C-alpha cells in the first residue's frame, strides 16, 4: 500500500474514532426501471428531515441520473476527481433539499479496475465524506463487478424490485450474486418492493423472494417495506422534483418515511464506516 494511501486510511480511522462511523447504505437492483434512483434520493431527503447529514453518492458510472431527479446540473463529477482535475470536496454539491450529491461519471465501468494513479484521488476523496451520518450509494442497474464492489462495502444492502415477474427474477439474480460474492456475515440484505397496488402484493413478492433465497441460497433476506404505485411519483419525475417534497402527505411519501423508520431501528448495529471501504479496495486486513 502506497504511503499516501496508508496516511489517508489512518486519518480516516482517526476521524471515525472522534466523530463516529458513517453509515453506508447501498441501494441496488437486478434490472433498470424499478425506481432505484428515485427511492435512493427520497430516502436521503427523509433522513435529512430527521436531522441527519446525508450524501447521495451516484455510483452509476455509465448512466448517472440522480442529478436529473434533483433537477441540478453539476459542473463537475467523479470523472474530474479520478482524473485529478478536482477534489471530492470540490465536486460535492449541497442541494436545495438539504442533502449533498456526489455526481456520477461516465466512462468508468468499474471502480475496481482503476489503476493506482486513478484510484488514489478517489480514495483520498472519500475521507472528506466522513462528515456525513449517512451515505446512500445509488448503484448502476444490473449485475457487474462495480455494483458488487459498492454492495460489498455497505452496512445495509437494499435490493429494489417491483411485482413484475422479470423484476423479481432479476432481483433474485442480484441476491444470488450477493450470496456468493459478499461475506455473508456482513451482508445485511433488505428488500424494498416498489410500485405495489396493495399491502398484500408487496408482502407476497417479498415472501416469495425470501423463501427461495433461504431454500436455494441459505441466505436470509429481510422485508424492509414497500412503496405504493402512486401517481405523484410520475408527476414528480416529470417535474424533476422528489415526490417526498412535492407532496409530503402522498402515499408514496408515507412509505418512504416508514422505510426510514425501520432503518433507524437498525442503526444500533455497529457500522463499518468509510475506512472499511478503503481497506476493501486496498486489500488491507482490519
Summarize this, please?
InterPro entries: CobQ/CobB/MinD/ParA_Nub-bd_dom, FlhG, MinD_FleN, P-loop_NTPase, ParA/MinD_ATPase. With 286 residues, this protein is α/β, with parallel strands linked by helices. Helices cover 49% and strands 16% of the residues.
Please, what is the average pLDDT?
A: 85
Architecture, according to CATH?
3-Layer(aba) Sandwich
Overall geometry comes to globular
Low-confidence stretches: none
Domain CobQ/CobB/MinD/ParA nucleotide binding: 25-242
Organism: Candidatus Haliotispira prima
Protein name: MinD/ParA family protein
InterPro entries: CobQ/CobB/MinD/ParA_Nub-bd_dom, FlhG, MinD_FleN, P-loop_NTPase, ParA/MinD_ATPase
Sequence-ordered SSE layout with sheet pairings:
Layout: H1 3-19, E1 23-29, H2 36-49, E2 54-59, H3 66-70, H4 78-82, H5 88-91, E3 93-94, E4 100-102, H6 116-127, E5 134-139, H7 145-152, E6 156-161, H8 165-181, E7 189-196, H9 199-217, E8 222-228, H10 231-239, H11 243-246, H12 251-265, H13 273-282
Parallel strand pairs: 1-5, 1-6, 2-4, 2-5, 6-7, 7-8
Antiparallel strand pairs: 3-4
Helix pairs in contact: 1-6, 1-13, 2-12, 8-9
Kindly describe this structure:
By secondary structure, the protein is α/β, with parallel strands linked by helices. The protein is built from 13 helices and eight strands. The protein has an eight-stranded mixed beta sheet with strand order 3-4-2-5-1-6-7-8, with helices on both faces. Strand 6, helix 8 (165-181) and strand 7 form a beta-alpha-beta unit. Helix 1 packs antiparallel against helix 13, helix 2 crosses helix 12 (251-265) and helix 8 packs parallel to helix 9. The longest helix is centred in the last third of the chain and has 19 residues, at 199-217. It is globular. The protein starts with a helix and ends with a helix. The model has no long low-confidence stretch (mean pLDDT 85).
Amino acid at each position: 500500500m502506497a504511503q499516501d494511501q496508508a496516511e489517508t486510511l489512518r486519518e480516516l480511522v482517526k476521524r471515525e474514532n472522534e466523530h463516529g462511523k458513517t453509515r453506508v447504505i447501498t441501494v441496488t437492483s437486478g434490472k433498470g426501471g424499478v425506481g432505484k434512483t428515485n427511492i435512493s434520493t427520497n430516502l436521503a431527503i427523509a433522513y435529512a428531515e430527521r436531522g441527519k447529514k446525508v450524501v447521495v453518492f451516484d455510483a452509476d458510472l455509465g448512466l448517472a441520473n440522480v442529478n436529473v431527479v434533483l433537477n441540478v446540473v453539476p459542473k463537475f463529477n467523479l470523472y474530474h476527481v479520478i482524473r485529478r482535475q478536482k477534489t471530492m470536496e470540490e465536486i460535492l454539491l449541497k442541494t436545495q433539499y438539504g442533502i449533498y450529491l456526489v455526481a456520477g461519471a461516465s466512462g468508468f465501468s468499474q471502480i475496481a479496475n482503476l489503476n493506482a494513479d486513478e484510484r488514489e484521488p478517489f480514495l483520498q476523496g472519500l475521507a472528506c465524506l466522513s462528515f456525513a451520518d449517512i451515505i446512500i450509494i445509488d448503484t448502476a442497474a444490473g449485475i457487474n463487478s462495480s455494483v458488487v464492489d459498492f454492495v460489498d462495502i455497505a452496512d445495509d444492502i437494499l435490493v429494489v424490485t417491483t411485482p413484475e415477474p422479470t423484476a423479481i427474477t432479476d432481483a433474485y439474480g442480484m441476491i444470488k450474486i450477493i450470496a456468493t460474492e459478499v461475506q455473508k456475515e456482513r451482508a445485511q440484505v433488505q428488500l424494498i418492493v416498489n410500485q405495489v397496488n396493495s399491502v398484500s402484493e408487496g408482502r407476497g413478492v417479498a415472501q416469495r423472494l425470501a423463501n427461495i433465497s433461504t431454500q436455494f441460497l441459505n441466505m436470509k433476506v429481510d422485508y424492509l417495506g414497500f412503496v405504493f404505485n402512486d401517481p405523484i411519483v410520475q408527476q414528480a419525475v416529470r417535474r424533476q422534483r422528489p415526490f417526498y417534497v412535492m407532496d409530503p402527505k402522498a402515499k408514496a411519501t408515507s412509505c418512504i418515511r416508514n422505510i426510514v423508520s425501520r432503518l433507524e431501528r437498525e442503526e444500533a448495529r455497529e457500522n463499518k464506516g468509510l475506512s472499511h471501504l478503503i481497506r476493501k479496495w486496498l486489500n488491507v486486513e482490519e
